[in-house]
Amino acid sequence: MTGYMDVPKPVRAGLVVVDAQRGTAQRVVVLQFNPESLERSLAPQAAGADGSGDRTEALRLKGPAVETWKFTAELDATDQLEVPAPNGIHPQLATLELLVQPASDRLRANQGLAASGTLEITPIEAPLTLFTWGSKRILPVRLTELTITEEAFDTELNPIRAAVAIGLRVLTVTDLPTGHRGAELYLAHLAQKERLVGAAAGGRLGALGLGGGIR
Predict the structure, then answer these.
(1) H helical segments located in 21-172
(2) 14-59: per-residue pLDDT in tens?
(3) What are the boundaries of each domain within the chain?
């Protein structure tokens, strides 16, 4: 008899913060539940999209499409009753929030530079963030949206259930320097898509009513 132990556990989606120089994972965020749906949008980088009217540019692409992802992650402390949660889901929320915040010590350092009269302070560079959705989707991303709706609280007003709307923009070779680890990961992702196209069944012109070919 097949038991529950025989059912394979689903792979979890998540985010990985990576040291771009060493390639080592600094932090791994595993989503408690896989989102039920994903919204993806791809906007082509067409050369003639600015309305210049140059007919020789109509079919040219300036670079990779601008790809965005949106989904909602659910967090629920009551789903893990065997795990003590004196802070509710504060730690999980803080982990997500710090993906869009510079480190406090870097902010203090910049305050010190400003106080000493430094006129130009280089913006703080965040670590490389990867979004993973199975082995075929490992994408360098930048978080563009993080909207948290806290839905339930314990007696100390710690949030114990929340829905987190997450927006991501895929970083491409247009966004990252040549040789950057994130740029190489994007190219690997694009090559994976090309392999998947090769595995798709080809269509026939006859199915479109074009049996005589295209002239």
Answers:
(1) 90-97, 104-115
(2) 999 998 888 899 999 999 999 999 999 999 988 876 666 677 777 8
(3) 35-41+62-99+137-194
